[in-house]
Input
Amino acid sequence: IKPLFGDTGVILMADDADFVSASAASVTSSYRDPALYLYTSGTTGRPKGVILTHDNLVANVESCQQAGEFDHRDSFLCLLPFFHTYAITGTFLLPLLNGSKMVLVDRFQPAKVLGLIQQHRISVFLAIPSMYRVLAATEGNVDVSSVRFPISGGEPLPMAVSEAFEKRFGVPIFEGYGQTEAAPVVTLNTPVARKSGTIGRAVPGVEVAIWDDQKRVLSAGEVGEIMVRGRNVMPGYHHLPEDTAKTITDSWLHTGDLGKLDEEGFITITGRKKELIISAGENIYPREIEEVLAQHPKVKEVAVIGVKDEVRGEVPMAFVIVREGEIVDEKELRAFCREHLA
Output
C-alpha cells in the first residue's frame, strides 16, 4: 500500500491484489475475537458497549462488496468520522480490503467536497441526509460525472432532499439502513435494485424479517419490528447479559425500528417502535407526517413526536424549522397535511 500525503489527508492505493487478499485472510484468523467495542445508546438510555468481532466486520464488508459490486477501480471519499460504525465499515474497511483509493476529508465543507470529487474522480461516498441537503443547495458548475454511488444512512433520508440532490447533480442517492449491533449495514438500495422511499433490500448474507409483538413473522405490507440475522450481528453487549438477552432472540436482532416489506423484498421504515403514536386506537407513524411536511416549500426541517391528549390518549405534534426568509403559519401547515395525509 502506497501512502500519499497531501492537504486533504492520506490517500491509500493498493497495487497488489494478493496483498489485499492476504490482509483479509489474516483479519479472519481469530474471527471470534472482539475487534471493536462501540458504545451506543440508540435514542435513549445509558450507552451500551456493542462487541463486534473480526468476523462481524469482515462478513459485513463482504456483503457490501457483493451488494454494490465495489472493486479496486472505485475511489472513495471519506466524509464521516471513523469513530462511527457507518464510517468504519463503509469508508474504511470496505475500500481498504477492496484496494480502492481513499480520500480523507477532515471537515465537511461543501465547496471543498465538490472540488475533491472532481479532482480525484470520486465514484463512491457515504454521507448523512443533512450533508446531502447542503450539497443540493450549492451553486456553480462542477463535474461530478464520476460519482456512481452516493449512499445515505445514519438517519432517514427525506424525499425532498433526495429529489433536490438528483435534480442538482443528475445522480440518485442510494439509501441504506443499519445499526451498530449489525456492524452496521443491513439493507441497501443499489444501482441495479433501487426503489425510492425505501431503504432497499437486505444485503447478501443478511436476513431481514418483520415480527409482531408475539414474535410471529408478518406478511408483505404488514407493519412490525424489523428483525435481522446474519454473521454481521454482534455476539452481545459488553458485560450486559440482560440487555443482550432482550436484544437478541434465537440469533435474531431486535432493531427497535418499525417497518414493512413489499413483495420484492424492499423495506420501508415507518418509525421507531417506542415512537409509535396511538391516537384514539389508530397507529400513527411520525415519519409519515414528517415526510409530508418536509415537502412543503417553506419547510426546511421537521420532527414529529407524540404528546398526551385527554380525549385521544395521544396526538402528534410537529416541530418545524422554516426556510430562511419565509413565513408560514399553523393553518397553512394544517391545510397542507389535510391535503396530503391519510
Summary: The chain has nine helices and 21 strands. Confidence is low (pLDDT under 50) at residues 1-10.
